[in-house]
Amino acid sequence: MKRMILVLWDIDRTLLYTGDIDRRVYKETFTSVVGRPPTALPARGTGVTMPLAVRELLRVNHVPEQDVETFAARIVDELPERLASHRELLVNDGVIMPGAMDALAAVQEAEHLIPTVVTGNLRGNAETKLSALGLISYLDTTIGGYASDDSHRPALVRVAQDRAAAKHGGPFNCDNTVIVGDSLEDVRTGLEGGARVIAVASGTTTEQELRAAGAQHVLADLTSTTTLLRLMDPSEAP
Fold first, then answer.
1. Mean per-residue pLDDT of the chain
2. Predicted pLDDT of residue 238
3. Predicted confidence (pLDDT) at residue 100 exceeds the cutoff of 60
4. Which among 200, 159, 158, 194 has a CA at the least distance from the CA of 178?
5. Is the pLDDT of residue 62 over 90?
6. pLDDT-based confidence at residue 1 (cuts at 50, 70, 90)
7. What is the 3-state secondary structure (H, E, C) of the chain?
8. Is pLDDT of 79 > 90?
9. Where are the domains positioned within the chain?
10. How far apart are the first and last CA of the chain?
């Protein structure tokens, strides 16, 4: 029997792209909570967890430091429902990244691979995006690691490993866990959290930058499922 391998997918710019919808949601929620529109918004494609992005959003928009944590908690609480209210926009404007659906299907079909997510999204936001674009059925989101679990992204690898172990008997560690993502934060999450890293240069970070950050493997995109599966499980190499 083949050893089980836990596959941790990043979401934004790895599996799907939702354009400026997240930034719109940040703007609307900030305005609702703070009472004025923001003049600056979070940077695109960084992979930073939503709670950290919210705190930075508040600070760059000159919210008094003594109010940051209170406002941040309220914004984080409101973000999932706010995004869900834009489901139609996600369906119409969201894009599945090249090769992503075939890659997800191939991983799901491999009996020894356990697909879930580790993401800077809150769980509600993650599931809304995946559901809107028809990808959620390829993943076991119940064992994923989300920004709603911990704002420190590398910690989410252990969260997912523990949940997977409880469901599948584990244990899961660096030897049998792989993360697939597009950002420097995805690389750091794997290296610090305890997972091998397959980086995909489908976001704002170049192949060279991903390699320099320490990713064990770097792909241009997800269009070669044969290559992807081989990298996930080196024992499959001829």
1. 95
2. 45
3. yes
4. 194
5. yes
6. low
7. CCCCEEEEECCECCCEECCCHHHHHHHHHHHHHHCCCCCCCCCCCCCCCHHHHHHHHHHHCCCCHHHHHHHHHHHHHHHHHHHHCCHHHHHHHCEECCCHHHHHHHHHHCCCEEEEEECCCCHHHHHHHHHHCCCHHHCCHHHCECCCCCCCCCHHHHHHHHHHHHHHCCCCCHHHEEEEECCHHHHHHHHHHCCEEEEECCCCCCHHHHHHHCCCEEECCCCCHHHHHHHHCHHHCC
8. yes
9. 5-17+95-236, 21-91
10. 18
Q: Examine the pLDDT at 209 and tell me if it is beyond 70.
A: yes
Residue 35 tokens, joined: 């009472």
Residue 153: pLDDT over 50: yes
For residue 44, pLDDT beyond 80:
no
- Asked if residue 170 has pLDDT above 90, the reply is no
Instruction: Report d(CA 191, CA 205) in Å as an integer.
Output: 17
Of 193, 197, 152, 160, which is closest to residue 51 (Cα–Cα)? 152
Edge-first strand order for the sheet with 113-117 is 113-117, 5-9, 177-181, 196-200, 217-219
Note the pLDDT tens digit of each residue in 105-139: 999 999 999 999 999 999 999 999 999 999 999 99
Burial class (CB in 10 A: 0-12, 13-18, 19+), 65: exposed
Residues with Cβ < 8 Å from 144, sequence gap 6 or more? Answer: 8, 116, 117, 118, 119, 123, 126, 160, 163
The highest-level CATH class for domain 5-17+95-236 is: alpha beta
